[in-house]
Design a protein that fits this description.
The structure holds 3 protein chains of 3 kinds. By secondary structure, chain B is mainly α. In chain B, 77% of the residues lie in helices and 0% in strands. Chain B contains 14 helices and no strands. By secondary structure, chain C is mostly helical. The chains are: A alpha/beta, B mainly alpha, C mainly alpha.
Chain lengths: 279, 336, 301
């Protein structure tokens, strides 16, 4: 990785003022991302989704986002106006969300939703957008793109829906994709297939990928590096292949708790939380 | 699907029977002797008995009800004491005035209420939302007849911006040939723009007042629907694609509430028919409402009950159809 | 409130049924008090009640019924704060006494619709089956009736008067409560604690009355408060048409009507009572919104 990183984040803080005080959802997060696969693992409430959304400027108005640095391909994300974000989102950075049942617009056809991204960013006319959409549908390995183009989201299976989502978010050729629990809503049998498609596309286009998940096994097999988050902090940053040698007790506990088909155990290990980790 | 329509028709029929049963019951409750109304109080006993039989009053109550129902279904609503016309003729004569009023009112309600509701929902908690909610709140709290009076006082009495009560200045009445009964349309057909303008200046105030109530309700429901949609993931997805916030609001969230809005508009229209009763009284607007209240004060039972059945039937039909439409297109059904 | 008492009320582990019920009530009131608009609504409603009760005292010695034809249509003055109407009666006094008619209608309608609605709704929700189907049909039928028109028809037959207005309003209002009670009942009918009461041998009536009805009450009360403004407006509308409380009893709708002819010059005769209707209706709406936020925060705002 000799070139400059795509994304640089230093000391990111995200907090939400509330009735009972301020909730710090992300604390002192720092990392960089190049054209590689970075996984972010954590349980619910660890702040991983919040961090993902903050990178796209999609947190609610009440959120307070501060950082020493937060820049993408030279653009200072902290200084972005809504207009600036509109130019970034979809075109240079994008996100695939968890459940296509909810993340696709129920009253628009699939084709139209995918084309919209092209129309917004690529100076296409409708014919060109349609052509690109069909090409994209093929790229995510949907067998009959012409047919699927005219379908509505509720007519798709989970796996197909997620592939449509991927098509929709990659059609404008962003350099960074954040995938927030992209397979958690899918059947296990379909999960691998979708991951594989994502993998191929990211690799072919030389994109950077941030994969957010609670599933350590999946992330470790899919990503190059992994960030472990707990209570808003990044507690460990490690190469995927070195997970066995993790240093932070939380990471070690997570690794230990993973059920394995090969290692014999009488009981599954659980994670004992140390209040020290909250500091 | 067929099941729902069958259920709807059944409810419609049963409700209609319920309505007519109530009006029948009311007609029997009255202290006025229906026989005397026909033969006069100087009639002989024989004439009285004859009329009694002719009216079917010697039959058991249930039979009488079915006779009544039968008459209604053939359009025989009885004769009006006041006008000596068949009630149905009267009703058809006055209905266009109410229709005109209610229709302009609903147009105002939708044209202002829907965008207001969308904006309120999309700016939830901030000042546009607060303002719209306050305006709406006043809309459900203020008595329509009082607002009408104040409106007349201010806009007609003090400012002279609109014409006074009635549908047309006395000067212009009867000039335009009655085709549809809706003066605006009739005047436009003849190209008589002077009368059109006069009719409009009479219509605008009562229609605006009714429209205000309509828009308060429509804005509230629209806001509520929008808030629900804006919290959905697909709206965030639209923004991730690069849409601006308002583009996501109007282009993505709004189309998802349009169907639910149709039923809201239907229900609002139905309730406007009721609101029209009071408005017509204030503005001396010769529609159904005024007809019924005049009949009421002249103890013209046939007219009152006939009007009740008509308004009731329209009201019931709009309500049930709106209900049916909503059940048919409920998004939960679509998601399977 | 002393620390001890408020602590006892807020306790998470109440020791008696009474403590639990009072605690809920106390917590509810505290929540309402944090919401400024709800407080305004509550204040207005309380003022309405006080107006009605203390009308004689607050009228400053003026009677609502004494006519003074020489002094008719007088402008607001030191003696008559709100002026006098077309028969020379003091408008302030009539407005204050008019609150009684409003309170009477509110109370009577509530007393009729809540029990009927609860009865029909809980039975339908608990029994299910054909009982439910029949009861819901009946509910649907009444739900589809136009309220004001029906009241007019009643008045035509039975003569004008407050009782007939109440009946007509009540007849068209109860279905909404039946629906609410039914949906609440259906949610809890198969829950474990109801099952345990069944196993204890409780009769159906006991189950419904002592266990299910109390749980429906909060939703019903919220709905009632919100409906109240509509009921007041309908009643005022009937009064305006001359079908509510009969003269000389003061009633706000009727007062607006009698001020109609002189609106251009003596605007206060019609405006003051109309304002009263508006403020009271607004008060119930605000209070209802506040109650709904407390008891059912998922809806609307």
């Amino acid at each position: 990785m000799s070139e400059a990183p795509l994304l640089t984040v230093e000391d990111l803080e995200v907090s939400f003022p509330g009735r009972t005080g301020v909730t710090r959802a992300v604390r002192n997060a720092s990392f960089t991302l190049g054209r590689e696969r970075l996984g972010i693992v954590g349980e619910s409430g660890s702040g991983k989704t919040t961090m993902g959304r903050s990178l796209l400027g999609l947190l609610p108005r009440t959120a307070q986002v501060t950082a020493k640095t937060m820049s993408y391909e030279g653009t200072d994300l902290l200084a972005c106006s809504e207009r600036d974000w509109q130019k970034l989102r979809g075109r240079r950075m994008s996100m695939v969300m968890q459940d296509p049942k909810y993340s696709l617009n129920p009253v628009q056809t699939v084709g139209r939703q995918i084309s919209e991204t092209a129309l917004l960013h690529l100076k296409s006319d409708h014919k060109d957008a349609r052509r690109r959409t069909l090409a994209m549908l093929e790229a995510v390995q949907i067998r009959d793109p012409e047919l699927v183009y005219g379908l509505y989201p509720h007519q798709l299976s989970g796996g197909m829906g997620q592939r449509v989502m991927i098509a929709m978010m990659l059609i404008a050729e962003p350099d960074l994709l954040i995938a927030d629990e992209p397979t958690s809503a899918l059947d296990v049998t379909v999960q691998n297939e979708v991951l594989r498609i994502l993998d191929d596309l990211v690799r072919d286009r030389g994109m950077g990928l941030i994969l957010i998940s609670h599933n350590l096994t999946m992330v470790s097999s899919f990503c190059d590096r992994v960030l472990i988050m707990y209570a808003g902090r990044i507690v460990e940053e490690i190469a995927a292949r070195d997970l066995q040698h993790a240093r932070h007790p939380y990471t070690r506990a997570l690794v230990a708790a993973t059920p394995s088909l090969t290692v014999r155990r009488a009981e599954l290990a659980t994670v004992t939380r140390d209040p020290e980790w909250l500091k | 699907m067929a099941g729902r329509i069958a259920s709807f028709l059944f409810t419609l029929a049963v409700t209609f029977i319920g309505l007519t049963a109530v009006t029948f019951f009311i007609s029997r409750m009255t202290n006025i002797d229906p026989v005397l109304a026909v033969v006069g109080d100087k009639a002989t006993q024989a004439a009285y008995d004859g009329a009694y039989k002719a009216l079917g009053l010697d039959q058991p109550l249930v039979v009488q009800y079915f006779i009544y129902l039968g008459r209604l279904l053939t359009g025989d609503f009885g004769k009006s004491v006041l006008t000596s016309q068949p009630v149905l003729t009267d009703l058809l004569r006055v209905f266009p005035a109410t229709f005109e009023l209610a229709t302009i009112a609903i147009i105002i309600g939708v044209a202002v209420g829907v965008p207001a509701g969308v904006i309120a929902g999309a700016t939830k908690g901030r000042w546009p939302d607060q303002v719209i909610r306050v305006v709406g709140l006043f809309g459900y709290s203020v008595p329509v007849f009082w607002l009408g009076l104040i409106g007349l006082f201010v806009f007609y009495g003090k400012l002279g911006w609109v014409a006074g009560t009635g549908r047309l200045d006395v000067f212009y009445q009867g000039v335009v040939t009655q085709r549809t009964g809706v003066i605006l349309i009739d005047a436009a057909i003849e190209g008589n723009w002077e009368i059109f303008a006069n009719a409009f200046s009479h219509l605008i105030l009562p229609a605006s007042i009714l429209g205000y109530f309509s828009l308060a309700y429509i804005a509230r429901m629209t806001r509520s629907f929008m808030i629900e949609q804006l919290s959905q993931e697909y709206v965030t997805a639209a923004r991730i694609k690069g849409n601006s916030y308002w583009s996501a609001v109007w282009g993505h969230a709004f189309p998802n509430i349009m169907v639910a809005l149709i039923t809201v508009i239907g229900l609002s229209y139905a309730s406007l028919l009721e609101g029209a009763v009071l408005t017509e009284t204030v503005f001396a607007w010769p529609g159904l409402g005024l007809y019924i209240t005049r009949a009421l004060f002249n103890s013209d039972m046939n007219a009152v009950l006939g009007g009740t059945v008509l308004v009731g039937a329209v009201f019931i039909t709009i309500n049930l159809v709106s209900d049916l439409l909503y059940k048919l297109v409920d998004p939960r059904l679509r998601r399977q | 409130m002393s620390d001890g008492l408020s602590h006892w009320l807020m306790s998470e582990a109440p020791l008696s049924r009474r403590q639990a019920v009072l605690g809920r009530f106390y917590r509810g009131i505290r929540s309402i008090l944090t919401n400024p608009t709800a407080v305004v609504g509550l204040v207005i409603v309380i003022l309405l009640v006080l107006m009605g009760i203390f009308a004689p005292l607050l009228s400053l010695g003026n009677s609502p019924l004494t006519q003074d034809l020489a002094g008719r249509l007088g402008a607001p003055s030191a003696e008559h704060w709100f002026g006098t109407d077309e028969l020379g009666r003091d408008i302030l006094a009539r407005t204050l006494y008019g609150a009684r008619a409003t309170l009477a209608i509110v109370a009577l309608v509530s007393v009729i619709v809540v029990p009927i609605g609860l009865a029909v709704g809980t039975v339908a929700g608990y029994m299910g089956g054909w009982v439910d189907a029949v009861l819901m049909r009946i509910t649907d039928i009444f739900l589809a009736f136009p309220r004001l028109i029906l009241a007019l028809a009643f008045a035509a037959a039975l003569g004008p008067g407050i009782e007939n207005a109440v009946i007509a309003i009540a007849l068209t209002s109860w279905p909404a409560y039946a629906r609410i009670a039914r949906s609440e009942t259906m949610t809890i009918a198969h829950s474990d604690f109801i099952q345990s009461v069944v196993l204890q041998g409780a009769s159906t009536w006991r189950i419904l009355f002592r266990h299910i009805v109390p749980l429906c009450l909060s939703s019903v009360i919220v709905r009632l408060t919100l409906d109240m403004s509509g009921i007041i407006l309908t009643a005022a509308g009937l009064g305006f048409l001359g079908l509510g409380a009969q003269p000389p009893t003061p009633e706000w709708g009727a007062m607006v009507s009698s001020g109609r002819d002189v609106i251009l010059d003596q605007w206060w005769v019609a405006t003051i009572p109309g304002l009263a209707i508006f403020v009271v209706s607004l008060g119930f709406n605000l209070l209802g919104d506040g109650l709904r936020d407390v008891f059912d925060p998922k809806s609307g705002s």
